[in-house]
Amino acid sequence: MCIRDRDQTVNPSDVYNIFQHFLFFFSQGIDSPNVFARNITAKSIISLLKILKKKEIEEVIDKSVVNTLINGALSLLQLKQQNMRLMGLKIASYLQCAQNQHLNYEILKCMCQDDVKDLRKAALLTIDVSSTNGLESNFHYLIQRTRDVDSDIRSMLYRKLTKEKIPLSSLRLCDRYKLVYDGLGSREEGVKEQTMKFFQMNFQLCEVKDEQTLTLLEDQGKTLATPQKKDFSGRKLCLEISRFLEVFELEKTLLYPEIEEGMQNLAEVVLKDIIGVSNIMPFADRVMKSLEPRSITKESPKKKKKKKKTLRVYCL
């Protein structure tokens, strides 16, 4: 006899209780000495966690069950078998909402120190940088993967930053330049391509949508000197480039000519590919000049030349 015939209804709480019961049941088998039992229980937990969204796990599952799953994931990460550790990372990816420091440490350790490429790649995909807390705690270690020995992991890093829509303005200045230097300076074309997509995403954040916004920003003195002709497309393009480059705080690079030269290349090469402008040099020159601090660009008053005194030495 089916449930409808009995005129019975199923409450959502009953479904959640059954769901948690199965999660708790399978989590007991992760610490089993039998490898086959560990494998089956880990795969079952992953299949159950896939049903829920990561944001819903903390709301639906009790803290006691979450803590049990975290302990199970930690035990899998301590094993020597590669497939077991991969499943441990998969389970950990669903449990980062609990903000467990021990679990976060093991994921970072696997991403930075593991010798197996697939494990480092899985840990890189697992790390959560979407929230502010995750960005502050994990990004310092995440950005170290720009110099990973494997080019696929370096490409995946920029792909992850683009997918998560991490704005450059939220990063430290040294990290912004590191992303430019390591990404565009890479020998692999795949890494350069993903770097370009990341900068393209950030450039879109600086786009001017309408003339009213452009006029407002010009009134605030945040745009560069534009020609007298009222060419909206030209002014809009110059403003977007200047807003993009201001993220790098170019006035601080005047003390370091090598960094300023690198940013000039960014204006010439990167923006050329992002915007698709064939002759980007005039825009790049105007933008770079407009972002220089006024105290440096002002002409200093001419000083009177002092006559050099000549000292005559007589040899006896």
Explain what this protein looks like in three dimensions:
With 316 residues, the protein is mainly alpha-helical. The protein has helices at 12-27, 35-49, 54-60, 63-77, 82-94, 101-113, 117-126, 132-142, 151-163, 173-184, 189-204, 211-219, 232-246, 257-275, 281-290, 294-297. The model is unreliable at 220-230, 293-301 and 307-316 (pLDDT under 50).
Gist of the model:
The protein is mostly helical. It has 16 helices and no strands. The chain is elongated and about 70 Å long.
Notable characteristics:
single chain, 316 residues, disordered C terminus
Topology:
Layout: H1 12-27, H2 35-49, H3 54-60, H4 63-77, H5 82-94, H6 101-113, H7 117-126, H8 132-142, H9 151-163, H10 173-184, H11 189-204, H12 211-219, H13 232-246, H14 257-275, H15 281-290, H16 294-297
Give a quick account of the main beta sheet: strands, pairing sense, barrel closure. Answer: none
Can you write the helix and strand succession as a string? HHHHHHHHHHHHHHHH
The total strand number stands at: 0
- Percent strand equals under 5%
Helix content: 55-70%
Mean pLDDT, rounded to whole units?
A: 76
- Which stretches are low in confidence, meaning pLDDT under 50 for 5 or more residues running? 220-230, 293-301, 307-316
The number of helices is 16
